[in-house]
């Protein structure tokens, strides 16, 4: 495994930027029925959801997520619960937040959120999926497979790659997650978990070089 660096090495920059740009869906946000914050280690998902709520983009937020091995220490009461608390601290009314505390992967995030919203009698025709920047494409493909009738747009905290790496504080972790999510675009489509998405040749080549460089921790 490459030695951990404090910032993105120049030798890797072009390939990492290629994957970073690929996973950003570059959607133009528009009003929706609900914002769905996908649980993870990254609290900026909750910040982004709160910021978008306060602009009036949607009237309701669902935070979805239990725990993964990478989040149990940071969010001991569960990802969605901590997200809710953070959003309330940022000024979102508690009455505008629904917590879905069971999901342990993106497919469950979507499936269980649908169930929770149905239980609340919500008529949902459009959603904004809020995730880590490099999770947008996989979240979109999963949602379109499992909830094809809704209009989906994707959002993340607007942040350039270097600032995001600094906010996480671990270059290797970010690159491994980018590589892992790139692999999952094809693997999950083949397994029927998500709709197929085009993977351009430059993305495939960047992915292969980063795998060869040793960034394999998130491969399946």
Please characterize this protein's 3D structure.
- The longest helix has 20 residues, at 171-190.
- The protein folds into 2 domains: 10-23 and 160-212, no CATH class; 34-155, Rossmann fold, CATH 3.40.50.620.
- The chain has helices at 10-23, 44-54, 79-89, 106-119, 136-146, 161-168, 171-190, 201-212; strands at 34-38, 61-64, 97-100, 126-130, 151-155.
- The protein is globular.
- Strands 3-2-1-4-5 form a 5-stranded parallel β-sheet, with helices on both faces.
- Helix content is 46%, strand content 10%.
- α3 links the parallel β2 and β3 (97-100).
- It starts with 9 loop residues before the first helix and ends in an 8-residue tail after the last helix.
- It has 220 residues and is an alpha/beta fold.
- Residues 45-157 form the DUF218 domain.
- This is YdcF family protein.
- Pfam families: DUF218 (PF02698).
- InterPro entries: Cell_Envelope_Assoc (IPR051599), DUF218 (IPR003848), Rossmann-like_a/b/a_fold (IPR014729).
Structural key phrases:
alpha/beta, YdcF family protein, 10% strand, Cell_Envelope_Assoc, DUF218
